Amino acid sequence: VKIFSLGCLALGLVAALLPASEPGDPYVLVLSGDTDGYLSPCGCTKPMSGGIRRRADAVKRLGPEGRTVFIENGGFVAASGRQDELKAEALAESLRLSDVSAINLGPTEAKLGRGLVLSLQRLSGGAFVSGSLRPSPTNEVQPFTHRGPFLIGGISQDADLIAGVLQEASQSHDQAIQSLLDHARLAGLVPVLMVQGPKSLAADLARRHPGLRLVQYRSSGDPPTEPERVGNTLLVTPGENAKHVVRLVYRNGNFEGYLPVRLGPEYHDDPHASRVYTRYQDRVRAEKLLDRLPRVQTAAFAGTEKCGSCHEDAYKTWKESSHAKALLTLEEDNHDADPDCVGCHVVALESTEGFKSRLLTPHLTDVGCESCHGPGLAHALSPKEHALPANAPKSCASCHTPATSPNFDYERYWQQIVHK
Ligand code: HEC
Ligand code: HEC
Ligand code: HEC
Ligand code: HEC
Question: Does any ligand 3 atom lie closer than 6 A to the CB of residue 322?
Answer without folding.
Answer: yes
